[in-house]
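Protocol step 4 of 6: structure prediction from sequence.
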Amino acid sequence: MVERWFAELINKQIRRGGHKSIQALKKDIRIWIAAWKADPKPCMWTKTADEVLERLASCLNGIPGSEG
C-alpha cells in the first residue's frame, strides 16, 4: 500500500508542480501530506486473501523454477 500512496503523491503533486527549487518541492510535498492527513482515504480491499493467494499461485505457475 505504501507504493500506492507514493504513486498518488507523484501523480497528484510532484508531476503537476512547476517546482523551481528543492525547497519549493519540499514545501509542496509537505502541503500534500498535510492535506492527506486531514482527509485520509482508507484502503478498501476488493478481494479475499484466498483470491489473492490463488491469483499469485497461478502467476507463479508460469515462472520456471518457482514450484517452491
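Step 5 (inspection) to follow. The radius of gyration is 19 Å.
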